[in-house]
Amino acid sequence: MEKLTPKQQRVYDYIRDTLAATGAPPTRAEIAEALGFASANAAQAHLRTLARKGAIELGSRRSRGIRLLGGAPIGLDGPVANDDDHTDEGLAVIGRVAAGMPVLAVEHIERRVQVSQAIFSAPADYLLTVQGDSMTGAGILDGDLLGVRRTTDVREGQIAVFRLGDDVTVKRFHRDRDGIRLLAENPDYPDITVDAEADELALEGLAVGVLRAIS
Amino acid sequence: MEKLTPKQQRVYDYIRDTLAATGAPPTRAEIAEALGFASANAAQAHLRTLARKGAIELGSRRSRGIRLLGGAPIGLDGPVANDDDHTDEGLAVIGRVAAGMPVLAVEHIERRVQVSQAIFSAPADYLLTVQGDSMTGAGILDGDLLGVRRTTDVREGQIAVFRLGDDVTVKRFHRDRDGIRLLAENPDYPDITVDAEADELALEGLAVGVLRAIS
DNA sequence: TTGCCGACTGGATATATTTACAGCATGGAA
DNA sequence: TTCCATGCTGTAAATATATCCAGTCGGCAA
Description:
The structure is a homodimer. The radius of gyration of chain A is 26 Å and the shape is elongated. In chain A, the strands form 2 sheets. In chain A, strands 4-3-5-6-11-7-8-9-10 form a 9-stranded mixed β-sheet, with no helix packed on it. Chain A has a two-stranded antiparallel sheet with strand order 1-2. About 11% of the residues of chain A have low confidence. Chain A folds into 2 domains: 63 residues, Orthogonal Bundle (Arc Repressor Mutant, subunit A), CATH 1.10.10; 121 residues, Umud Fragment, subunit A (Ribbon). In chain A, α2 packs across α3. Chain A is of the alpha+beta class. At the A-B interface, α1, β2 and β11 of A face β2, β4 and β11 of B. Chain B binds a DNA duplex through α3.
């Protein structure tokens, strides 16, 4: 197969993707719109060139009559997410956490979910099932799975998972001269002011992502 | 998937075979000729029945807009690995969805994400990047990846992806004696009242889940 | 019997799609 | 410089397709 120019390759790729996404090849007009051409004829010219070079085959007067011939298989474009370690097992989903017990204790693992770390802002170490509506304002609803990355420090304004005495909670972190406050993102819930003396505050990890089933 | 009659199965098989043989689904006329019908309308009726039973999916006014749903995916010969179905390649992230003021959406696969179907309420066929804040009340924020399952019908109250003319939007479906309305979940955004006459409303699929990176 | 569904025929029509024709601009090769 | 390939815009016409409407027929269940 003769070599394709970058532009021609883009047309070829679009055909391949459309085939995969819709089950049928695109029309000239669809190609033109997708690649930003004002005229479908530009796509037509490209197709003829691709056919001449042996990358595709065109059916005469046949709507969507484009067949891929070239040998380039679909590749996982983009970077492949590299997990820290246990890629195969997926992320553990943690349910309710008993008081004082380490979050990642085996007995808390309900199941495992295979998820690419690519969808998180940073690699997650486990998933936590959110309970309650205190963070709905941040788009974190009751029942959501929260991707958590274990860290030792939080920065101002970040959403993280904290342990306050016996309770594990998700809140936005805020610290100023008056001390630390854990802010809820729901007017119906009060912010939590942490009394450095009396309360025992621990950071479980940073919230790096949310997964939710919509029914 | 509802059971098919022998005749319906023959139509289904012909679509599958045509897809494998030519790289594109057949037209009504081609189906009619292949199965010996004198009228393409006979094929049309069969297709509608197949769609109703969930065996295929029909694209509105789209030439060769037939998509197989039931059973094993067919091997598009040539270099095209069929997407959709799954696991190995992950879900395709397709274009952007206007969730605020409708924005022109150019459909096109941006990347792929490995996600277990288990986190969705139903298997997703692809992921769409949400654009806009009109569904924040439902915990769907700007930039979120929305898991979409291609279907042919929505039920009252479900959140789905609609195409209104050239615009793609995520909204909650509502239908009553006055007609169809697409409800935003954000007081700052107006609900969309669909004019059955003037507007061309199409269902892209059901929202089955949300993925979001928190930074 | 009545009514509904699966299976068609035939004809009409609005779109969707392909394709030809006419140009324009750029850059490399002869 | 001239020729040619790449890459486009724009318009129009010829076809290909999807879809709607109006009926027909036989089987089956209420």
